[in-house]
Amino acid sequence: MPKTEYGTVKAVPERLLQRPGRFMIGQYVTVHGDVISHVNISHVMVEDGGEYSCVAENRAGKTAHSARLNIYGLPYIRLIPKVTAVAGHTLYLKCPVAGYPIEEIHWERGGRELPEDMRQKVQSDGTLEIKEVQKSLDSGVYTCWARNKQGHSARRSGEVAVIVPPKLNPFHSSILSLNVGDRASITCSVIKGDIPLTITWRKDGRPIDPTQRMSVTQVDQYNSILLIENLSADHTGNYSCVVRNTAAETEGHQSLLVNGNCIVPDRHSLPPNIEPFSFQDGLAEGMRTRTVCGVSKGDPPLTLKWLKDGDPLLSTLLGANVSTLDQYSSLLNIPSLSAAHSGDYTCVASNPAAEVKFTASLQVKGK
């Protein structure tokens, strides 16, 4: 790829231009400082036709210009590489057609001509536009075909894979206020997103350091817990849970404020305190949800249990799983929601000093 002190200029499609012999790229700088780049094609063939782009870039950014090269001949469609789309975004599929003149370009999927709904549109240049891409509806093999006035045609198929970006269950509150000597646990729960997922933690924008006296537990591929057993003033700060997959990266933020020394008259009779938890909004049938009941204060031995609408949670009946993360935390996991899961969920924490409860409502929308 040619480079100058002004930046880099390249012509694409690179797949064609990497062929030795017939394709040559050159460039020069004029006396006025303009970079002129050109591509020469010898022994032109029909399949050399198509859209070419000149991309200029330097440290400040990049810009591009595209133009179509038409070569008289029968319709020809180059190989369509596998395309990865991000769910919720707009997908543009170009039909890499060569030959001239071309009378019409069409798209098919599963033997049916597109568009077949309001999200789909075939533009005047033959590009297929799909708005708000959905994994269940839009993944699959797409075929474009082109025809000239004489009835000669060509067709080619390509695969589209849709990846769902990660989405986090929002933290219950933006600021968590605790005292020196308390325990703190922050749960990062991924409610949507294709695996593999990577979950990492940061404090004040920097990766968690083992010397900071905190630990991270990877509960499963969707949940991670940051635990600080014994808070001190230097634990005050802004904590971030960063989740990424091949589609995108997202993060949630939780501020932790550690107040001065808390004097407890009788440490042996400290009752439990449950950190507030909640279920995310917009849950529908078939989705998954998880929430953690964590005890930030209270002497062991501790007992944690769950209720639904005031009655003991019957996991075998509802398909809900309860697992103990440690002696201070319990995870409620519902892998596939149904309307029957709607209701009030109560975490009950008890020790010899007291029994305390915290309740959160779960609303599941029908399909």
TrEMBL record:
One of its GO terms (molecular function) is cell-cell adhesion mediator activity. The keyword Transmembrane does not apply. Keywords: Immunoglobulin domain. GO terms for cellular component: axon; plasma membrane. InterPro entries: Ig-like_dom, Ig-like_dom_sf, Ig-like_fold, Ig_I-set, Ig_sub, Ig_sub2. One of its GO terms (biological process) is homophilic cell adhesion via plasma membrane adhesion molecules. The keyword Acetylation does not apply. Transmembrane segments: none annotated. Residues 75-161, 166-259, 272-363 form the Ig-like domain. Signal peptide: none annotated. It holds the Pfam family I-set. PANTHER family: BASIGIN RELATED (PTHR10075), FASCICLIN-2 (PTHR10075:SF100). This is Ig-like domain-containing protein.
